[in-house]
Protein 1
Amino acid sequence: MSAPLPFREFAAVCLPPGRRDGCLCMLAAYFDDSGTHGTSKVVVLGGVFGNQFQWEYFSELWKRKLDNPCPGKLPLRRFHMTDCQNSQHEFAGWKRHETDFLVRELGQIVLKCGLWGYAAAVSRADWDDLITGDVRRMIGDAEGFCIRNVYIRTLRWARQFGGDKNIAFVFDSRPHREKENTRVFDIFQWFQDNQQQNPQLVSATFASSYKILPLQAADLVAWEFYQHVLRILAQPDGNIELAPRKEFDHLLKGRISFGIATRAVVEKIARMSAESNQDFVKRAGDYIEAANPSLADLFGTELPP
């Protein structure tokens, strides 16, 4: 297994040739999923974002922790939350206090680096019940909705706090989702360019967490939030104020936020979509599904240069 890529080397790959000006100014956002298996009651996409200096510091600290994860334990090739919590694969033989120790240490790295983060969740049953037809083609299934949501939230963060002019999005590699995700990226990129807003979206990459260390932090955030939402749904009243488990609470002491699309939220999305221009809704669905999509067909011929 090859070593993880240093952030600067990865950024040089992400930036288009015309933007490799010798001064690396790029934000990067990394996302992973949880609960995307077909039997899951809730779907989550969670991630972390920051600037190049934060990511360089993060990579140094994270790699050091993988090399020495816990007293008496061998180095890890990769941190994976499901494996860690179930003491399987690289974590075979780990005791609960040892896995809890490592999760706490890794969460502290996220906080120490000042990284921001966001996780989105939606009830699969509510989404499937209420979002149908052309609206579903446009805004996706439950996972597709989460993808669109994290783009919106990350760009909002970047405008308010990011400072840099470029942003790269990196998602854990799931080949069957790449087509739709790329289409969604192209739409958000068009809007940013058309409105001449920073940051400019420079790339959407799909990578392995073995190679890209920040995806391991995204996995931690997504898993913790998934468990939190499952606990909420298990409550008779669905109380979203339910106290999080201690490790998720630890992450929330930093800059991690989250959003849960309850049934009431999904109902509002369905109403707003029904009141939208239905011709555009259909064209947007066609664009997402097309083999060779055209932004001109979606938005008209007045495209930015």
Protein 2
Amino acid sequence: MKPAILDRLRGVQKAGPDKWLAFCPAHPDQKRRSLSVAQTGGKTLLHCFVGCASDAIVAAVRMTLADLFSEPGVPPTPSPQIIATYDYHDERGTLLFQVCRLEPKDFRMRRPDGAGWTWNVKDVRRVVHRLHELAEAERVYLVEGEKDADRLVSLGLRATTSPGGAKGWRRDYAEQIARARRRGDPRSRRARPRLRAAGRGGSSGGWRGGARAHAPGLGRA
């Protein structure tokens, strides 16, 4: 298979086994084909005799340098795309950070910086999901992941999770929920929220209505 970049170049001519010449798209190239394209070991090598850099050449045809290293006939790996975002607020409703779900499947965290987003949460306070909605909650469902928490909230329940799921759980998260419940009710100073791990493995996917056996303290499946 020939390199994919050849389909985006003008005046392509065969110059030998796995070698081609074409007009360079990174500079005005009308009469003399100054771009050499070679394929070896699944890599595409570019050389402009005028001196254009490879990154300028691929940018001119809306490709990236990574595309040059794809195996012949195999489409380049797509760039990750955000398919869902989950906001994390403090007790007052101030947005602290977001967890982003990406496709291909991955999760990354980012924080607002006043002009957009910064893709790290260094020095940002970590809180549980939907913390600002847990005030005076009698029961809180602890689930594995933001999607499951949002599903239970859509059913009229109070639910939360931690950033990173079960692996990201920290001791102070339970106290955050306890403080949220006490907010506005000084009589419940010693009260702790009733937490339940919903469904098997902490997932609400197999949960069916009806709250059973809500034990005080923190419960996880």
Protein 3
Amino acid sequence: MRIFSYVTTTIDLRIAFIILGSIILLLLNLILEGIFLNIIAVVTLIWFVAVAYLIYHSLSFVKGDSGELDVASVLNKLPQGYSYLKDFVNGKRGNIDGIVVGPTGIWSIEIKNYQRGTITFKNGVLYNDDAPLENALTQTYAEAKSLESFLYESLSTTLQVNPVLVFTNKKTRLHFGFNKQKGVYVIGIKWLSDLVQKQELGYNLPPEQQEVIKNVLKKNTSIL
């Protein structure tokens, strides 16, 4: 993660230098050169801004993908009897980043890889420092409920799904423990394995029922 952070910071600085250099080039041409070179300078500026925009959004994608890989690394080390399935697609209801099925029940995992900060809960909303995470809890809770509906429609059985919102940046600070916030477990990645193995937080799911559930979910997910 340190290497990734360093690369991200380095590229962001390069983007800033590219934009600054382009602006300086434009100003110099406006002062010293004719109309033709001014047009070239404008086109160059637009080009570099477009490149910077694409790089920025590419970094956001890589950052999110890195968070999912970190979660997979943790959950693939769960004891025998647990299975981690990623990228569950539930038709028009959207997708779920990951699902754990095991002796302690079913856990839906929503993954966030934000910049480091302190996660707090105020007036029903999560905050990363002073920035509100408006839909984080609502999204995570809705995903768990949509999975419950999917399982009921597939198996004609009512099954509880435990919603989990996990922050993968190890420098993110949280102080909720295993207490739910608006029905959702909000934790850092280092506590994820412990959470899904806590029998008192989940419920007893027999092995034969686990297999039935996994077979249904496999049609819409990939196993890591």
Protein 4
Amino acid sequence: MKIASALTKPKGIRNIAEGSIGGPIQKGKLFFFTTGRGRSNAWAGPDLFSVRPRISLGRFQQKKLGAQILDSKGNQILVPTTDGGSVALRQGMIFDPSRGNQDGTGSSVFSSGGRLNVIPVSRP
């Protein structure tokens, strides 16, 4: 197996196919028309992507929260907040990576002024 260095660009192939077809069904009265497009990608090398975060400092993100996550018995799971409180665990919560353990236990969900998923502007 050949490993690409950081200076070499992996080979990438992108194929795009487009087509359209049309014609009369009944001359002068009825016709058909259809179009299609397809794309395939093939990359030789690791798939590394940079994803631009959709959060911004001090911006209210609570509307992004999903359903509650319950334990195996159907009970709420409480998680600490950076404000010092605790809230029920929900999908889409943003946790502070500087708090807690490396395995994720003890992490706190970002909050500011009681609003969840808000990264305080004062945070370095």
